[in-house]
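Example record for the data management plan.
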Amino acid sequence: MTRDVPQEAPRSDDPRGVGALLASAAGRWPERLALRSVRSPNPARDATYAELHDRALRAATRLRAAGVRPGDRVALVAENGLDVVSAWFGITYAGATVVPILILSAASEIAVRLDHSGCRAILFDAERSRIVARVAGDRARLPVEGLGDAGVPTAAGPEETDADAGAMILYTSGTTGHPKGAVISHRTLLAHAEGIGEHALRLTRDDRVLGVLPLAHSYGLRMVLLATFRAGCRAILVRRFDAAATLELARTEAITWIPAVPTMFSAWGALPHGPGVESLRWCLSAGSPLAPEILHRAEGRLGAEIRQGYGMTEATFSTINAPPDERVIDSVGRPAHGVEVRITDSCGNEVPAGETGEVRVRGRNLMTGYLDDAEATREALGDGWMRTGDLGRLDTEGRLYVVDRLKDMIIRGGYNVYPSELEAVLAEHPDVREVAVVGRPDDHFGEEIVALIVPNPGRTPDLATLRAWATEHVARNKMPREWAVLESLPLGPSRKVLKRELRHRIDDGRITTERIG
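Corresponding structural encoding:
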């Protein structure tokens, strides 16, 4: 069954599921520009809300013709653009579950996701056609290009669905080991879009959002598409991130808000001095801690304030430090609307404000569970509170401060060392563009501390001098003993630094460190 489009914002129990965000926007603002897809050097492609809705309906018709039925799962691997947005909503309009796959995934990674999720079909762009042909098996294969084009009759509207059914399955990025499929319900996506959009971001129909984040990632999808469409504003999508090109695009498109990750802000901050973005109101950083020095450099280049938020694949945007709340640079803000946060010790007991422990989250932003993995689901959500694996503390006003990943914490000689604290200090040095601190096994101390430096352009840091400078800011027991200069840090598909990969490269000798001090 289908329903016509009502002229109101969707509720979390809307029978059309998350597709209601686009369907309702098409009914409320049919002629408003919803999306501009920039794929230089090709001309930009525009779509109004009504046009995008129609494209999604046609995509759903093609999916049904390919054998996709309500409740099926459909993989989607494609770069940002109009076609991938049409495909994403087309899958939901057909009553199926979206399985987004990051475009940098290897063939084996795609195969694992297809098999584990039991996908009925896979949608892909031209650049992924060969790799998809290798792993798709007997699944239906449909190119996203032209999927929503004219020539196919459109149905009346999105399929009705259970609000608690899975809208998408997001596979964890794999920075800590074998990925798991986090099932996110329609109710969760709709409730979180309302909570984060209306109570934190406060987007209006006049806003223009820069889409530099991959839409296959939870952060990009929720902020660039779902919150934007609920507000009726415009998303400007770029195919791939390039610091200079996106800064110029932000100026020409009069962008008002940018959600991005720390490596992007680092790249913007490293650009030569020039005009900022006059229209920009503020920016949001999430995904990993943003060192204060990188924050200040990026603010100077963009010309707008950067705030921070916190979340994970299984619990996106649990906290956010959004205007008009006071900015606290090293905090990721207070709990988002409909979300609770607490800090616990290793036994699960809540600890007082100011004490460090594991961050736990409960609320409208949580996954339903891990697909076909009851044990992992119980471990993560057994008491209703999501175990994030992150270390943090709350202040007396309820603001969260993320200290580090529990698995990234280094224990050297019995002392806990938090890499993010060292990274924030070392990033302040003028020779340093990016830095990662990791631990490696050591017979005497248990673990040794290793600092990996990416220099600013034109700089050649002397490691002994850098270490001497660091001694003024870092306690002796926390001081890295081993150092290396790298051209770049390995990044995952969501542009997070892959510390596990760095540790492997140190272990197998691909990274040679220098012992200093």
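Summary line stored alongside the record: The two ends are 71 Å apart (CA to CA).
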